[in-house]
Amino acid sequence: MLIEIKEAGFAYGDATVLQNVNFTIHESDRVGLIGPNGAGKTTLLKLINKELEPTEGEIRMKSSLVCGYLKQNEGLDSCCTVYAEMQSVFEKTLAAVKKQEELSHLIAAADHNSIEYKRLTSEYDQNASYIAAKDGYHIDTKIKTVLNGMGFASRYHQTVSTMSGGEKTRLAIAKLLLESPELLILDEPTNHLDFQTLGWLENYLHDYKGAILTVSHDRYFLDRMVGKIWEIEDATVSCYHGNYSAYKVQKSEQTAYRLKEYEKQQVKIASMEDYIARNMCRATTANSAKSRVHQLENLERLQKPRTKVKTPVFRFEYDYESNKNVLSVSNYPLEIDGKTLVSCANFEIKKGERVAILGANGTGKSTLMRALAQSDNPCIKFGKDVKAGYYDQENLNLNFQNTVLEELWGRHHRESQTAIRSILGGLLLGADDIEKPVSVLSGGERAKLGLAVIMADRCNTLLLDEPTNHLDLITREALEDALRKFGGTLLFVSHDRYFINRLATAVLEIDRERLTRYEGNFECYENAKKVETLNQSQNESTMTKSSAKTSSYRTAKERAAEVQRKQRIAELERLISVLETETETLNQNMLQPDILADYPKYKEAEAAYQVKKTELEACYQEWVSLLEE
């Protein structure tokens, strides 16, 4: 057991955030923490990380437990290079490796019969054991594996402080993975990750040895990664076993069961109260009625379960239909600051299609959406009667000085204030919220206002750039449902794979300056990419076979050289097999206690190992060179 939470609660003054929390986290647990924005998820994480103290109950932790906490949108800020920042994780181990080299030189210079020699060799052995325990000779491999997986393959020498906020957050995840704490606490780790990086992270965390507690609005991530769901609702935490999809089923079943039990009890209570009312005044039945009164007083009354959660109401309606041909983009070069993102974009979107734009970070998805929204290029043509509404992921189209009410009503001043308030109220922006300046709104509130603007515009074509950013799961699902009912045309960018899978009828992928269309939702797109990879592999194999077939028409001299090459490859493969065995034997011999205790013997064994290793590497190089011919 890593952490035990018993009857814990937390309050700010009179405002209760959490109460009666009872859970444990064991080694290798995978827990997903969900709940509406403001429900107390971050507060619970801070309690577990000892940044806050519970106002009631207690939180017990394993002695010397090491926790790693990634806060939401909090990245690294350093004057070091990317690689140096990652090396700082292994500062003590790298110091031990350096010290080992120094000890080696000191031992070589010391008198083998002196006390100093014995002290140095003893220290050398202890240091070697420490390095082995920390896997100190594979640090570079670990760092490169994580940096490459997180998208920093070509940026080892870049200074961290020159990176964007999203890149710093990704780098913070990379550093945390290298630290490998017993409990990994992640608050929205999938923000700022493209699909390739996200896939790598999921695979890495799948094999992670420690426990993981994560807050995430990414339902695909929760389905793949967790075995428990903790849901915060009404200041209490409920536990469900399984991933997010299993939680949805369990919660529905539990709510139905609790409602049934509540209704049964209500029938029983009504029957008892009716009996009491009819019999309390009769002398013959008064005692029986009083007995019923005592039973009611001692009855533990069930609370009616919440069957309907208050959710935002999105309605995307329009006044007239668009032409069948909604959008045509022909020979459009997508560029930004002189950099080509798509050399020549060509695609069409028909009425009623729901098209997702996908691609790695920086490939030009948002740039393309802005270009379409501006629509001032002759290569971009919207069809007749198309009324397009654009949602900016940064909400830069909003006036941050206006209040919420002023911002929406100012755009639609012919509408009554009641109608405007109704739209905002439907999105759970209450009377207090609509008097706030846009500048002080939370990310989720600002996103709702941006979507309210689109709703009020009554557009038949929607261009949405990351509309799910900052939205909690309940709001995302409400938005999904509304967009599925929308009868118009939708073009959108999203990192939410679940959202894409439910909505998309086609996918436009930006990759290596090309734009490619795939039919179907996200799963169809993934399957198509797998087929492409398989076909590419088969084509390469076919080309190799074709090349081999062509080689049979070479001259006699060339054919003889080819025979010699193949013979040498076979000879090298036999030799490599023998050398690998001998090298491994010598390596194991170096680690024997009697060899480690005797420095001259160790140096002799190490020299033999290096000679054999050099011979093996030379064979490898020749073998690879011959294969590439």
User: Helix amount, in percent?
Assistant: 40-55%
Total DSSP helices? 20
Number of strands: 18
Low-confidence stretches: none
Please summarize the sheet with the most strands: 6 strands, mixed
Beta-sheet strand percentage? 15-25%
* Ends apart, CA distance between termini: 57 Å
How big is the Rg? 33 Å
- The best one-word shape is globular
Overall pLDDT score = 88
User: Strand order across the biggest sheet?
Assistant: 5-6-7-3-8-9
Q: What structural class do the secondary elements suggest?
A: alpha/beta
Describe the structure.
This protein has 629 residues and is α/β, with parallel strands linked by helices. It is 49% helix and 19% strand. The protein is built from 20 helices and 18 strands. The strands form 4 sheets. It has a 6-stranded mixed sheet with strand order 5-6-7-3-8-9, sandwiched between helices. The chain has a 6-stranded mixed sheet with strand order 14-15-16-12-17-18, sandwiched between helices. β15 (461-465), α15 and β16 form a beta-alpha-beta unit. α5 (139-149) packs antiparallel against α6 (165-179) and α18 (556-590) packs antiparallel against α20 (599-628). The longest helix has 36 residues, at 244-279. It is globular and about 105 Å long.
